[in-house]
Amino acid sequence: MAIAPLLFLLLIALPLGAQTRHALDLKSFDKVWSTVRDTHWEKRPGGLDWDAIGKEYRPRVEAAATSDEARTVMREMLGRLRQTHFGIFSEQVYDSLEDGDGPSGSGETGLDVRPMEGQVVVVSIQPGSPAERAGVHLGWVVQSVNGRPLEPLIVAARQNPDIHVLQLTRSFLARLSGPVGGQLDVEFLDGRGERVPLRLGLAAPRGELAEFGNLPPQRVWYEEKRLGVTAYVRFNVFLDIPRVIPGFGRTLQGCKPCDGLVIDLRGNPGGIGGMAAGMAGFLVEKTNQKLGTMYMRDATLNFVINPRPDVFGGPVAVLIDGTSASTAEIFAGGLQALGRARVFGTRSAAAALPSLLTRLPNGDGFQYAVANYISQDGKPLEGVGVTPDEEVLLNRRTLLAGQDAVLDRALVWIQEQKGK
Amino acid sequence: MSRGGAWAAGLPSAESLLDRYVEVTGGKAAYENRKSEVAHGTMEFVAQGLKGKMVRYADASGLYRMTMDLPGIGTMETGVRDGVAWERSDLMGPRTKTGAERAESLREAVLNSISLWRQLFPKVETIGEETVNGEECYKVAMYPGEGNLETLFLSKKSGLAVKLTTVTSTQMGDLAAEILFSGYKNFGGILTPVKVIERAAGQEISITLDSVEVNAPIPADQLEFPADVAALLGKQKVN
């Protein structure tokens, strides 16, 4: 199930008690080892004798002089799986990813940013948001928030291969959030390299609250517009089925004369896995098609597509980047494998499996996958991601010119499909 | 504890156990008097914390429709009409079922399936004994004409069904399922379990019936195919 990214919101923080660090590292090792034993989709995780692996590595953790050494041993053990998406985050890095060391709260500036060329660059600005009203421009660099530079987060990411664009972007956005009605002092670099200090308000987050079982209520927004005669759709998360899926259907119903459709999944972290197949039903005419298959320990589930009574038949472009994860990858990768969509942008987050992120007794973070997902073309998405048909990189130069190079290329491609 | 294989020789016949099941739940006449049923209840996906309402309509002509409403998911419906087994949801849209999945749905839609077991399962046999939640049971294997084996666990003491195991055919794939029945109550002269727990693929769905109206009229709109299912059937006919 591709809801896993949202489980990042359900992290359990286990406070450090009076026990020695060494004992906590051992307890952490036991938790890592037993979690893989109990939840991995293969009874022999990675084809390994996991009991023997535990006996091999536990004494090495017992002998470790420091937590860094213990962590190294645990990472080495997980590396034996030869499967990605198993990672240990040191306590310090994990903390910064969890809340960005910033003020807690759901207030937003309206900025979206990405790591780019070693900097944190503004890639979109919500119309009417505090950031737009303050005069922030696309392509500006975010230098610091409330006096705290963002550069250390980028440096930490470079030093830790387990940190991906998705986590890094989340940590930036956490820094750029806070209590609704509050303010942040943000220092930017503009297009000429000049420092621009701005005080940005924090507005109520966009979207409507949607509930899904045990998950805390989430803000969900769905946006559609016309770019000439092409329809453009974007939504922030695969949740709120009663609103998002009929909304998508209405978009397509109202777009029969459109020459194509752009689905922008950049920044979309996934959500309910079934929504990928449900939405694909509006785009795929042929029966008995599926987006892929999820392999769990006790079941194998196909993401089957039910063609809707009224299917959109025009060309479909899907935009992705390193923050497109989970259900977004299942959707993009599946449509790509079926030849139903052309994918533009950069490689997705490679986080297409139901993976969980939990806290270890020593305070470190532990991420682990519980299922394997194979896309319709036979390729796993986990740790690999969706590779765009056309790789298009955002860069500061085009952003400063107010252009979205990825969207622009997709629109050109749709025009090229006329008459084909 | 489980005893099967060679032990089966000394066990009561499956036919006698199933006939007793019919008797203890109300008897053949009570089933023959039941022409329709409207049931309301709650449905819960336990692990996910999802809870919603369900309503189920069935009549002796073979009409069946169950509607579930869950927050964040919307409406999910499944039904049978004119030999067409269908389902629709906000999530996946409409579709019709085929093969073993259709056969299973058609069997489930039979209003008085308990008393009509001879029609639905051409072959039955007692295959052993097993204790289910402290209740000693006989295991009865029931082989349908089409579809997967169903194994019913009938209480030695009460004669009531305690559990059913089967491999259920779904669009996403086959799933081994275990269904537990409890809390039998009398509705219109027939004992019906008000608590049904279904487990499959590590997930658990719990259904609790709040009311069951026997021989209640079924609203006219529930007799028709939903609009999107009707549209799909029209499209299938054209193609």
Adjacency order of strands in the biggest sheet of chain B: 1-8-9-10-11-12-13-14-2-3-4-5-6-7
The helix content of chain A is 25-40%
Strand residue percentage of chain B: over 45%
Largest sheet of chain B: 14 strands, antiparallel
Tally of strands of chain A: 22
Taking the alpha carbons of the first and last residues of chain A, their distance comes to 37 Å
Give average pLDDT of chain A, whole number.
Answer: 87
Description:
The complex is a heterodimer of chains A (420) and B (239). In chain A, 31% of the residues lie in helices and 25% in strands. With 420 residues, chain A is an alpha+beta fold. A six-stranded mixed β-sheet of chain A has the order 12-13-14-17-18-22, with helices on both faces. A four-stranded antiparallel β-sheet of chain A has the order 6-5-8-9. In chain A, strands 1-20-19 form a three-stranded antiparallel β-sheet. In chain A, helix 10 runs parallel beside helix 11. Chain A is globular and about 65 Å long. The model of chain A is unreliable at 1-19 and 96-103 (pLDDT under 50). Chain B is of the alpha+beta class. Helix content of chain B is 18%, strand content 51%. Chain B has helices at 14-24, 28-33, 99-109, 117-120, 227-238; strands at residues 2-4, 36-45, 50-59, 64-70, 74-81, 84-89, 93-96, 123-132, 135-143, 150-155, 161-170, 173-187, 190-200, 203-214. Chain B has a 14-stranded antiparallel β-sheet, sandwiched between helices. Chain B is globular. Residues 1-7 of chain B have low confidence and may be disordered. At the A-B interface, strand 10, helix 9, helix 10 and strand 16 of A face strand 7, strand 12 and helix 5 of B.
